[in-house]
Amino acid sequence: MSAHSAPAAPASGIRFERVTVAYGKRGESVALDALDLTVEPGEVMALLGPSGSGKTTALRAVAGFVRPASGRVFIGDRDVTALPPHRRGIGMVVQQYALFPHLRVAQNVAFGLKAQRVPRGEIAGRVTEALEMVGMADYARRYPRELSGGQQQRVAIARALAIRPGVLLLDEPLSALDAQLRSGMLAELARLHRELPDVSILYVTHDQVEALTLADRIAVMDRARLQDCGTPQDLYRRPRTEFTASFVGNANLLPVTVGGATPGSVRFADTELTVTGVDESGHGPAPGADATLCVRPHLVGLGEGENTLRGTIAEVQWRGSTHRLFVDVAGHRVKADVRELRETPALGQPVALHFAAHDAVLLPAGTAPQATVPAATQTPAPVATSAPVPAPAPGLAAAGVAKGVAPGAGGATDG
Amino acid sequence: MLVHSRTGRWTAWIVFFALFLPLFALPLLVIVAASFATHWSGAFPSGPTTEHYGAAVRGESLEALTTSLVTALTASVLALAVGTWAALAASALGRRAKRLLDALFMLPVAVPSVVVGLAVLVAFSQPPMLLNGTRWIVILAHGVLVTAFAYQSVSAALARLDPAYEQAAASLGARPWLVLWRVKLPLLLPSLNAAAGLCFALSMGELSATMMLYPPDWMPLPVRVFTATDRGALFTGSAVAVVLMGSTLLVLLAVSRIRTRASYR
Description:
The complex is a heterodimer.
Chain A: E1 14-23, E2 29-39, E3 44-48, H1 55-63, E4 70-75, E5 78-79, E6 90-94, H2 105-115, H3 120-133, H4 149-162, E7 167-171, H5 179-195, E8 200-205, H6 208-214, E9 217-222, E10 225-230, H7 232-237, H8 242-247, E11 252-258, E12 265-268, E13 271-274, E14 290-295, E15 301-302, E16 307-318, E17 322-329, E18 332-339, E19 350-355, E20 361-364, H9 394-404
Parallel strand pairs in A: 3-8, 3-9, 6-7, 7-8
Antiparallel strand pairs in A: 1-2, 1-4, 4-5, 9-10, 11-12, 11-14, 12-13, 14-20, 15-19, 16-17, 16-19, 17-18
Helix pairs in contact in A: 2-3, 2-4, 3-4
Chain B: H1 6-35, H2 51-56, H3 59-91, H4 95-110, H5 113-123, E1 125-126, E2 129-130, H6 135-160, H7 163-171, H8 176-205, H9 208-213, H10 221-230, H11 234-257
Antiparallel strand pairs in B: 1-2
Transmembrane segments (chain B): 12-37, 69-88, 100-124, 136-159, 192-214, 234-255
Keywords (chain B): Cell inner membrane, Cell membrane, Membrane, Transmembrane, Transmembrane helix, Transport
Protein name (chain B): ABC transporter permease subunit
């Protein structure tokens, strides 16, 4: 048996059919509202959303830890809605690892194999195989408490993979790790998925970077509902709602009125702007209607261009290779990420910003998130405030970011 | 340490000994002293002798010791089994049902144990449930009394147990009984261990309910202490009491030495 053989279980996807989960005596608090979603066999689907968006509930419905009030869950062709967790054939890794503290690493990994009555002679080989896959074979005789967080997480992944599940559920698997370890584990997970191409992965996270890096498709969730679903590139370049725009990557969201004269012409405050590719579907916002213009900060440049916005500098953040400018334009704060400037512009200085018509997306108005700041801002990138004084107190700087960002505009981590 | 100054620390020690010695240690030391005495008319006992111990580990007293050990052991095992089972069942119940069960199990503790003894006596004195006059009525009464403690400590431990372990086990394909046997119970082992010690100690010292229902051929050690001192054999009673104390402590020590791997996390 090769060290990296594919799982024995047939490739199986996950299908949610109008799955509703409600808590409370009369089901008054809905945690998941009629979710329709298909994870193809071998696909990595990220469930991305702020806390309380229903993403973990969706995962728990697949695992069998919550019973849907209505709707059905399929794993492969099997309707598992009424099956107890132990008969679903899933692998699962949770945020706090949940390794059995009274068992050694090898015993932890063997647990699932024994539970599934794998022949005794086969167990040792498969434990080694699973531990080798995550590079933990040397730690087989340790107890979980003797391992670091990252090592524990590897063991938890090995334990889940040892039973060769067709479906792997990952519930915020990296959120207990520090930033550096997290990016290492992200690469590791990507490698594992390349080695086990038949395993479908449902990956719950509130971190857009994890979702963008790992997922074949991202399902964006908010307030118990599926808001949007598509490939990372699709969601990033052509978001369909203000929520997606601000939660997947960072965005400037400007309220505009659709102009009548030429297609793609919109009015923001007193400025006429053009957006291309508005009516691709043929039913964009009608002339005179309100809409939201979305443009990514890194696609906004200094100076005049196809679409020009004029305003004054409100704040400048130095981020090493880039400067982030916060510019007040007609009462709205526009963010622009520009290559590091030779001279830091002064606060209050008038500037012109421009962006290309094909870089802007027009969104229906009123699809904004409820929460003012998405959960992704919980890990702000290192920033410095406007003054050229190097490295001010990071706490202050972070607070400045949180305040400086317009409501609904994404956090510190851009794609 | 909360107290940082040297004088403060000394004061704390002095207060501790001033309270601890007379309240906890001295009475026990007096018993030990009395168990070696033949007379005690002055401030200190006189006429050191080990004769009382000879009596305390022979004949009726030895019989009472084995009676007590067997009773406490059986009652503890029963209480642990019933209490753990009930606590596991209660954790799966709704909040109201669980509260009702909690109250039910606390009943024997809330009611004076004399009343529990009398109740058990009355309840099991008629066929078909005729246990009166057998050792089983004593064991049963002890079991009823100490189950409350077993139930409560396992219940508290279960409430603290992270459901993630159970769920991880279930997701790996473990049937509920396997989850219980290989995950839940091992993780509960420290609490089960503590509960066993508590049950044993309580049963070893139980007197009031036992007085109500012990048959002549099943007299536990506390009753023996009581009857000895009641007859005026104070020094013999003391020696028997020291034997009771020592054997209980020995068993507790042994229980606490049982290795509980799950206790370190």
